[in-house]
Amino acid sequence: MKTLVKVIFTSSFFYSLIRVATPLVLASLGAVITSNAGITNIGIEGIMLISALAGVFASAFLGGPWVGLLVAILVGVICSLLIGYVSMSLKADSVLTCIAFNTMAVGGTVYFMYAVVKDKGTTLALDSGKLPSIPIPIIEEIPVLGKILSNHNILSYVSFFMVFVVYILLYKTPLGLRIRSAGKDPKALSSVGVSLLKTRYIALAISGVLGGIAGAFMSMGYVTWFSKNMTAGRGFIALAADAMGNSTPIGATMASLLFAVAEALSYGLQVTTFPPELVQMLPYMATIVGLILYSIKRNADKAK
Amino acid sequence: MGDMNSKVVLKAEGIVKVYPNGVVANKDVNLEIVAGEIHALIGENGAGKSTLMKILFGMEQPEKGKIYLNGQEVTLDSPKKAINLGIGMVHQHFMLVESLTIAENIVLGKEPKKNGFFLDRREMLKISSEVAEKYNFSINVEEKIENVSVGVKQETEILKALVRGAKILILDEPTAVLTPQETKNLFEELRNLKKQGHTIIFISHKLNEIMEICDRVTIMRHGVTVETKEVKDTSPAEISSKMVGRDVVLHIDKLPAKKGELCLEAKDLCYTNKLGKMMLDHVSFKLYAGEIVSVAGVEGNGQSELAEILSGMKEKNEGEILIENKRMQDYSPKAFREKGVVYIPEDRMSVGSAERMSIRDNIFACKVDQYLKKNVFLDESRMEKDAKKWIEDFQVLCFSSKQKVNMLSGGNIQKVVAARELTEDFKIIIAEQPTRGIDAGTSELIRRKLIEFRDAGAAVLLISADLNEVFELSDKCVVMWNGKINAYFEDTAELTEEELGYYMLGVKNQSKEEVEKIWR
């Protein structure tokens, strides 16, 4: 217990909490957009992974991390539109489409990584660079808080800014109104002459942008290289966060933070004497427990 | 109306509509709508009203015929086009997003914008509350749809159409879901709309409502527009006789009924639907072996709920059912089947059959237990043998027993359903609209089968809106109106269709004592 307290109540634990929360928040916001439009985008995991590699390549060969970020976003959008085309326009089963896409993402990234850097594990050999970390003036000076909040990667700040962007998009714009209608009652949307397909493609594209940023963060912020299957299920955790957060941007962010605590804890505890196998399970255990609790609560609400 | 100044705004001429499955919904439809009138369209279910309205709203395209709007011929190939031309429709099933507010639903698709990107909430509220005010709708546009009553939802739909510039409003059975107070309120609003120059097409089969609010009425029967009359020059009796009249008299020979034992007894069945409307209001009757009792009535007066309760598809709220003098404990479909009740449902596609499975699989769906080898494996050869026999017996037109049901025509699907149900070990048949929308040959086959089984000692409850069927098949007849049995006829031979029509439309009602003769 003492070790646990020691691990948690340090500024470095909270600093790492924000760091590990970044990709979860971004991906869960992507999931929020699509699930509001009536699509469960299981492919967000693969989108992140492919974007992460694309970002590293673009950064190394085309002109630094900013170009890398741009390409990662672009690739994220293309990937999600591809999923949309197969599952919506060609009407393949959407779950199977996304599973196939995710499997392809794992294998495909390794293939291209090997083709380019002759390594099946990481792209360490490439000098791909890192998006800058930003010290925040004034806050930086505050003891403890400064250490927690300042000097994060720029995408961490972007991710929390995105919560507001997505909130405004969903609730304050005509597009948001249409996206929510597409998810809640597609017939009503069609009956007023708005294309359901178009609305859903737009939602998918936006989730591709968010997934792309999340991927770029993984390989150019969180670490500075791409490694095999580096997303490690974060896309799925993000889907769980979306469900737990009732598909609202704030709710999904809160749920993401909860899962991030588990993940940060697993890193913190790795330096202690806890069995590492158990510790590494933490974020995934937390996801399952979270979903169970959420479902119990939802069913209880329904019964009322 | 009818003077020289009346201007025809919408005209349909010689409309023919045949659905891909061969159902002829509109045979020869002619309709003239005059500017500023409330025009009723009345007809039985299946008479072709909804199809006609879908054509006028661009949801279906006719095979033949022309549509004129203000004298100009138009092609209405999508609802969007109809909306742009000033035609609005309020569907029976609302097209609203439950989690959004009334205002959001009203502007959805043509949202006012601020700075080119943001939703202009103030403008949205202004647009929707202004239109509500203009037409005297007292609603709070900021309320969410999921929290408002059915009446308000309907008002939202009307406002949705008005905001999009509808001059002609089509209302598809708008009062079917409303309480009497809400209906009164709706009529007030419709009168007001009319005063402001709107034209309203009002689909209904409630005569009293038509008499109350409409200027003219067009009567449809079996896909044809029978006649258009000024409401003030007609009477409920005239409309009802034109609406439910028989056009071909067919005749099936049958022996006099041999009344047997009491098979089924229903006592005070009540059922309230999800919307809180009481669909069955203390319905009681007895069913004897060897007799066909028909339940006549205009759709939506509780007949389908009755059939669904007697087959276990819905659970009653009150009352009880006794089969062979034993009170039912369990009201599941399985329990009814075990007691020898078979059910031919009205919706043969989604309830009656598994449309993407083969004929054989459908026939054996309820009897696989009797076709097992070593108690585990399906005895395919025996199944195939019996399937062949029954396909022949029920004259199902198909290439093989393995053909999928959705490849068959409506009539043949019904034969498959009948083949499954009527080869069970049964005592009671609940047949709900067994011949609706199917060809004459199949109808006759199914009717003959029902008589055949009645002669063999089965009790048959026949729910039908087809008066031919009621007159030809039934030994006794009851009429349902407004969730109650409002008439009982011991002998259908003396009954005329006019007489029956009055009861079906609630123009006449028998006294309680007369109805209670069912108990004797």
UniProtKB/TrEMBL annotation, chain A:
<feature type="transmembrane region" description="Helical">
    <location>
        <begin position="278"/>
        <end position="296"/>
    </location>
</feature>
<keyword id="KW-0472">Membrane</keyword>
<keyword id="KW-1133">Transmembrane helix</keyword>
<feature type="transmembrane region" description="Helical">
    <location>
        <begin position="69"/>
        <end position="88"/>
    </location>
</feature>
<dbReference type="Pfam" id="PF02653">
    <property type="entry name" value="BPD_transp_2"/>
</dbReference>
<protein>
    <recommendedName>
        <fullName>ABC transporter permease</fullName>
    </recommendedName>
</protein>
<feature type="transmembrane region" description="Helical">
    <location>
        <begin position="154"/>
        <end position="171"/>
    </location>
</feature>
<dbReference type="GO" id="GO:0005886">
    <property type="term" value="C:plasma membrane"/>
</dbReference>
<feature type="transmembrane region" description="Helical">
    <location>
        <begin position="12"/>
        <end position="34"/>
    </location>
</feature>
<keyword id="KW-0812">Transmembrane</keyword>
<feature type="transmembrane region" description="Helical">
    <location>
        <begin position="95"/>
        <end position="117"/>
    </location>
</feature>
<dbReference type="GO" id="GO:0022857">
    <property type="term" value="F:transmembrane transporter activity"/>
</dbReference>
<keyword id="KW-1003">Cell membrane</keyword>
<feature type="transmembrane region" description="Helical">
    <location>
        <begin position="201"/>
        <end position="225"/>
    </location>
</feature>
<feature type="transmembrane region" description="Helical">
    <location>
        <begin position="46"/>
        <end position="63"/>
    </location>
</feature>
<dbReference type="InterPro" id="IPR001851">
    <property type="entry name" value="ABC_transp_permease"/>
</dbReference>
TrEMBL record, chain B:
<keyword id="KW-1278">Translocase</keyword>
<dbReference type="InterPro" id="IPR003593">
    <property type="entry name" value="AAA+_ATPase"/>
</dbReference>
<protein>
    <recommendedName>
        <fullName>ABC transporter domain-containing protein</fullName>
    </recommendedName>
</protein>
<dbReference type="Pfam" id="PF00005">
    <property type="entry name" value="ABC_tran"/>
</dbReference>
<keyword id="KW-0067">ATP-binding</keyword>
<keyword id="KW-0677">Repeat</keyword>
<dbReference type="InterPro" id="IPR027417">
    <property type="entry name" value="P-loop_NTPase"/>
</dbReference>
<dbReference type="InterPro" id="IPR003439">
    <property type="entry name" value="ABC_transporter-like_ATP-bd"/>
</dbReference>
<keyword id="KW-1003">Cell membrane</keyword>
<keyword id="KW-0472">Membrane</keyword>
<keyword id="KW-0813">Transport</keyword>
<dbReference type="GO" id="GO:0005524">
    <property type="term" value="F:ATP binding"/>
</dbReference>
<dbReference type="GO" id="GO:0016887">
    <property type="term" value="F:ATP hydrolysis activity"/>
</dbReference>
<dbReference type="GO" id="GO:0005886">
    <property type="term" value="C:plasma membrane"/>
</dbReference>
<feature type="domain" description="ABC transporter">
    <location>
        <begin position="10"/>
        <end position="247"/>
    </location>
</feature>
<keyword id="KW-0547">Nucleotide-binding</keyword>
<dbReference type="InterPro" id="IPR050107">
    <property type="entry name" value="ABC_carbohydrate_import_ATPase"/>
</dbReference>
<feature type="domain" description="ABC transporter">
    <location>
        <begin position="264"/>
        <end position="507"/>
    </location>
</feature>
